[in-house]
Design a protein that fits this description.
Elements: H1 2-26, E1 29-31, E2 36-37, H2 40-45, E3 53-57, E4 61-63, E5 67-69, E6 74-78, E7 84-87, E8 95-99, E9 104-108, E10 113-117, E11 120-125, E12 129-133, E13 136-138, E14 145-150, E15 158-162, E16 165-174, E17 177-181, E18 185-195, E19 198-202, E20 206-208, E21 214-219, E22 222-225, E23 229-231, E24 237-242, E25 246-249, E26 253-255, E27 258-263, E28 266-269, E29 273-275, E30 284-287, E31 291-294, E32 298-299, E33 304-308, E34 313-316, E35 320-321, E36 325-329, E37 334-337, E38 341-342, E39 349-353, E40 358-361, E41 365-366, E42 369-372, E43 379-381, E44 389-393, E45 401-405, E46 411-416, H3 421-430, H4 435-442, H5 452-460, H6 466-469, E47 481-485, E48 490-493, E49 511-513, E50 519-521, E51 532-533, E52 544-549
């Protein structure tokens, strides 16, 4: 009888354990310090308003309906090594995650929160704060946004995604909302839009493939993009920015039709801007008092490389190139070209300035026609109105001006290692000196060969120029020639100057540029017999070489 009782007790106990285990397997999360729940919705419903609460996942959750957080709930979601995957594929439940009514959701711990919605990946309004780690997307082929954030009644809305975001439009920030994406943005139509105010930071690249669409549109906002902006759809544009916005792109911009169009804004582009469409009317446009700085090249294949109108100012550090016209300025627009301006050699115009337009070119113009003033030819102005530049104008009450660097003021000093001079200087303990410091050290020993104004020009160039950032030791053990230009840039010159003349070491020869664009060594005995040598790289071919030292 005792054995039968033990058997019955064992069966009852085993059944109870299995039942408890079954219940435990249905638990998906818990409130830290509180109860466990079979659904995350039940756990969220149990969170009191305005009471910071942590919900901890106990297993990975896959769901196909919207996760709603509202009623002023302040939730931290501890991923606890698990994932929460939301995939909504119908318009009935259009968003994967919806946060509103002054509620917040922040994820912590290892594991990802992935939100894929039909219309929205994340929908954040009415004071919502969202900060998740995971990817966000929206799948509807039209009008879907990976993130939609809208601020109303002055209550801030903020969304941070530590991951990639995609959709028909990557995201929309409206009416002052803040969106931070530590990842890349991909848009089937557009990368993202900022409407009526918004703060946006994207750490990675922004790309879109919509035809005739802007990859990025900013209608009042502050935007920083850490990577490149790429628009590949037919007739697509890189960026449109207006209404007192600020924009910084730390990478480059590529588009089919227009690279960037800016109105009444402040713009900084660190990299290059390029377009490929032959029918493009411009690659860069600045209007309505826009200020724009471009750190790289502007390269187009259409009408104009850079257009500046209505009191706008554009500064381009690299070359400006397009088919028919490099630069067009009018209505008090102004362009500062720090390098060369290039247009087609058979039909192109370097600069077209009219209606009080102004252009200053530190490099040279390479085009069929260097400059025009609307329908007029213009004429040289003497004396020049800008020191170190040649001045051209159309005159009259609404005169336009084009200033081109006077080639007689451009000089390059070459230090050659063809016979080991650089290596010898390094062995003397000067290897860690930058190139500017080397010239200052050499100047007293080279009477008249490194003029004071050459040193002064170098000293006045910006600190990020290569003459200050390159140490002499970087050129050790090579047979290269280093061209140090008066604007602070350097050029590596492959020509072997020393080979042409069997002279004593460390002699100095004057050079000048002839009308073929090549550089010829002037020899006192017979200049015409001196071999012509091509100088390549940087702006050396556009400078007077004052001396060479080996």
């Amino acid at each position: 009888m005792k054995q039968i009782f033990l058997i019955i007790s064992f069966v009852v106990l085993s059944t109870a354990i299995l039942s408890l285990k079954s219940v435990a397997n249905n638990v998906v999360c818990e409130i830290v310090g509180g109860a466990q729940y079979e659904t995350i919705d039940a756990a969220i419903a149990a969170v009191p308003a305005n009471t910071p609460t942590t919900i901890r996942l106990l297993q990975t959750i896959d769901r196909t309906t919207t996760l709603n957080i509202n009623g002023s709930r302040k939730i931290t979601l501890d991923m606890n090594g698990f994932n929460l995957n939301i995939t909504v594929s119908t318009s009935t439940n259009g968003a994967a995650l919806e946060v509103k009514q002054n509620s917040s959701l922040t994820t912590t711990g290892s594991g990802t929160f992935n939100a894929s919605g039909f219309i929205y990946g994340i929908y954040a309004v009415e004071g919502a704060v969202v900060n998740i780690t995971g990817n966000v997307s929206a799948t509807l082929s039209r009008s879907a946004s990976g993130i939609y954030a809208f601020e109303s009644a002055g209550v801030p809305v903020s969304v941070t995604v530590n991951g990639d975001v995609s959709g028909y439009t990557g995201f929309i920030a409206a009416s002052g909302a803040e969106i931070v994406v530590n990842g890349n943005i991909t848009g089937g139509s557009a990368g993202f839009r900022v409407l009526n105010g918004g703060d946006v930071y994207v750490s990675g690249n922004v790309s879109s493939s919509g035809a005739s669409e802007n990859c990025i549109s900013i209608y009042t906002g502050a935007v920083l993009v850490g990577g490149n902006v790429t628009a590949t759809g037919d007739g697509s544009n890189g960026i449109y920015v207006s209404n007192n916005s600020t924009l910084t792109v730390l990478g480059s911009i590529f588009a089919i039709q227009h690279g960037i169009s800016a109105y009444t804004s402040h713009v900084v582009i660190t990299g290059n801007i390029s377009t490929s469409l032959a029918e493009s009317s411009y690659t860069v446009y600045a209007g309505n008092s826009t200020e724009m700085n471009i750190g790289g090249h502007v390269v187009g294949n259409g009408d104009v490389g850079v257009v500046a109108e209505t009191s706008s100012k554009v500064t381009v550090t690299g070359n400006i190139q397009s088919l028919y016209c490099g630069i067009r300025v009018s209505q008090s627009g102004e362009v500062f070209a720090k390098s060369d301006v290039i247009a087609d050699a058979t039909v192109g115009v370097g600069v077209n300035a009219y209606s009080v337009g102004k252009t200053t070119i530190d490099g040279t113009i390479r085009a069929y026609k260097d400059l025009i003033f609307g329908e007029l030819e213009g004429a040289p102005v003497t004396p020049s109105t800008k020191e170190g530049f040649l001045t051209y104008s159309d005159g009259g009450d609404y005169a336009s001006y084009i200033w081109i660097k006077d080639p007689s003021t451009q000089e390059t000093f070459i230090i050659s290692n063809e016979e080991g001079l650089i290596d010898e200087l390094i062995r003397s303990g000067l290897g860690e000196k930058n190139l500017y410091e080397i010239l200052v050290i050499l100047q007293p020993y080279l009477t008249g060969r490194i003029p004071d104004n050459f040193i002064a020009n170098l000293a006045n160039s910006s600190g990020d120029k290569e003459v200050f950032t390159k140490a002499l030791s970087q050129f050790a053990g090579t047979g290269q020639c280093i061209g140090i230009n008066a604007n602070g840039t350097i050029s590596i010159i492959p020509t072997s100057f020393r080979a042409y003349y069997d002279k004593k070491e460390f002699l100095f020869y004057s050079f000048a540029r002839n009308n073929t664009g090549r550089v010829k060594l002037l020899c006192a005995d017979d200049p015409e017999q001196a071999p012509a040598v091509t100088v390549q790289g940087g702006t050396v071919s556009d400078c007077i070489i004052s001396a060479i030292m080996w």
